[in-house]
Amino acid sequence: MEKAEGPDDWPAWAARAYGDLANPDFSFVGECYERNPYAEPIRRISAIAPVQDRTNLDDYVCFDLEVDGGRRRTWLVQLSMVGPFAMVIRVDRSGVFLRNAVSTAVVETDDPTGARILGILRESGFHLLSAEESKTSVPFRIPPDEEPEDGPLYRVLFGDATELPW
User: Measuring CA to CA, which residue among 43, 44, 18 is closest to residue 32?
Assistant: First the structure.
């Protein structure tokens, strides 16, 4: 798996996946899902906690996994089909995003499951986007819109969201 050096790598990865961001081609999504380039990190995460695949190919361009963190916590792990970018988001059992929900470093979590998830993703070459990085404004056209509009980088790398809950 190729590795992302950091958040500034996203334009090259997006160009490879979509072609032109003003007229994106989403055909890579189904092919990526079938090929599953992230099978190994997903297998490793599944070995430490139960994983439910919630991937929705109609609205998202990521593998969307719900990892059971035990007791009161669930981890949403999103692995971008655009390139090696990931988000790890903590939610409580009712689906409410926890304070400081987005985790990018092991020191940010006191949860052993979360720490192991973050470690697996880093070892696998993913760049873990922070909440701030995910909010970076970029122009992107989502059909049927006529013109590109500014929205969060999250929308380019993970899915159709104009507002982020964190």
Answer: 18
The sign of the dihedral angle between the CA atoms of 12, 17, 22, 23 is positive
Quote the strand ranges of 54-152, DSSP E: 62-68, 73-80, 85-92, 97-103, 127-128, 137-140, 149-152
Q: Token pair of 158, please? A: 């993970």
Task: Kindly calculate the radius of gyration of the chain based on its CA atoms and give it in whole angstroms.
Answer: 15
Do 128 and 10 meet the contact criterion of CB atoms below 8 Å apart? no
3-state secondary structure of 123: helix
pLDDT tens for 47-97 read 999 999 999 998 899 999 999 987 767 889 999 999 999 999 888 777 777
**Whose CA is closest to 88, among 57, 73, 139, 30?**
73
Taking the CB of residue 106, how many other CB atoms lie within 10 A of it?
14
